[in-house]
Amino acid sequence: MWSPPYLFQPLSHKTTENLQLKKAFTVSFADQKHIAESDYFGMVSAKDVPDKVKKAGFTVTKSPNVDAPIINEYPLTLECKVIEMTKTSLNETRVVGEVINMSADDSVLTNGRVDLDKLQPVVFDASSMSYRAVGDKVAGAWNEGNKIASPSKK
């Protein structure tokens, strides 16, 4: 079982207003190809730069599944509906969503599944204020733990 997507949004951001109004959002996965654009999106608010998507050289399409945009240049997007919004003590809004659909470009798929080697996703490392590439597969899920759960007899 996996957790639903959630995010924390500053109360002052335009995105927070849209979340309250539309009750929907999309989550696009930043990849190595789009580092500058992804960083830019985190640096500016649409309240201050209303055409920030265009300024980044990107285009959007309305999601057919939720009332939110899909950034066409990102190869993987989750389309979500808001299931909970809670104001936190840190002057943020915690938003929990339910994934309604996943949009993935064929270029990041292998046998109909997202291939992280092709996607080349990045994550934000707050401790070093940097972006890091998601690395190599190191083990199979629900496999390595069997060494502890059912150790082989010697």
Protein model, in words:
The chain is α+β, with helices and mostly antiparallel strands and 154 residues long. It contains 5 helices and 10 strands, in the order βαβααββββββαββα. The longest helix is centred in the N-terminal third of the chain and has 9 residues, at 14-22.
Mean pLDDT: 87
For the biggest β-sheet, the strand order reads 1-6-5-2
- Main β sheet profile: 4 strands, antiparallel
Low-confidence stretches: none
Strand content: 25-35%
Q: What is the global morphology?
A: globular
Q: Fraction of residues in helices?
A: 10-25%
Specify the structural class. Answer: alpha+beta
Q: Give the total of beta strands.
A: 10
Number of helical regions: 5
Order of helical and strand elements? EHEHHEEEEEEHEEH
| First-to-last CA distance | 33 Å
- Rounded Rg: 18 Å
Summarize the model shown:
The chain is α+β, with helices and mostly antiparallel strands and 154 residues long. Helix content is 19%, strand content 34%. It has five helices and ten strands.
Any descriptors?
154 residues, alpha+beta, 4-stranded antiparallel beta sheet, two-stranded antiparallel sheet, 5 helices
Topology (elements, then pairings):
Blueprint lengths: L5 E5 L3 H9 L1 E5 L6 H9 L8 H4 L4 E3 L6 E3 L4 E12 L4 E13 L4 E2 L2 E2 L1 H4 L2 E4 L4 E4 L12 H4 L5
